[in-house]
Design goal:
2 domains; 3-stranded antiparallel sheet; Arc Repressor Mutant, subunit A; 119 residues; mainly alpha; homodimer; DNA-binding; 12% strand
DNA sequence: TCATTAGTTCAACACAATTTGAAATATAGT
DNA sequence: ACTATATTTCAAATTGTGTTGAACTAATGA
């Protein structure tokens, strides 16, 4: 992931509606969710508004879509999110592993595998 | 870190100038760097422009400043960056550890301690 | 105190992002 | 072919962000 991709991705998730969509899609997983269901889950926002944000997310490379009958199903692109986390950790790891400590603790908790504390 | 803090932080690093400043300050470490030195490192941008971006970063909670003689020294707030990485990893870890794989691999490489692959 | 250096603040402008509702498109069922 | 459903596209209005240079404030040293 280069600087421009990271900038676009950060811009994508710096909007409340879009951040909520991404988090929703990550939790839902590969199956994804239709534009309409996303709009409903977001409190019944106008369709055109959700469509606008879904398009932004798709252009940012964090989300993808497929048509399924009348619906268009959106889902998170996990490798892209993974790259974004890695981008955020990269610099810090070139000298300051302390930036990663909470992330690593979280990972250890999630996998059940203990991880040594950071120096 | 709550949603609003995350949104503000992502907005802060979704601008090229600000992202470069943050990365610079992370690499430099606790000692920090003066506003003027930052402006120079960024190719001699106008002081008022850099001041604007430094102020945005400070308001976002990612950076702090202290006066030292005539200079004002800016430095990264490492716990804030750590929280931001953790925020990005939180959802994914509630179900989809695959999002964290690259980050973990990077961490293993940086610390020299191998980490088991993600399920 | 005066001049110099280091940064910030301000107002004005330009440009980009967001929201809305109405109109258009695509698919499915009758 | 017709109707209903699902979603996108468009234009217009609004709001937010970033840039600039000039004026301002703070600290240092002669």
């Amino acid at each position: 992931m280069d600087e421009n991709q990271a900038l676009t991705a950060f811009a994508a998730i710096s909007n409340q509606t879009r951040l909520r969509i991404v988090r929703m899609l990550v939790i839902i997983g590969a199956g994804g969710r239709s534009a309409g269901a996303i709009a409903e889950a977001l409190g019944g926002a106008p369709a055109s508004r959700i469509s606008f944000h879904l398009n932004q997310l798709e252009e940012s490379g964090l989300v993808e879509s497929r048509r399924e009958g009348r619906s268009i199903i959106y889902s998170a692109i996990f490798p892209a999110l993974s790259d974004l986390v890695a981008f955020l950790m990269r610099d810090c790891c070139e000298g300051h592993c302390a930036v990663c400590d909470k992330a690593i603790a979280l990972f250890a908790k999630c996998t059940g595998r203990p991880t040594d504390p950071v120096d």
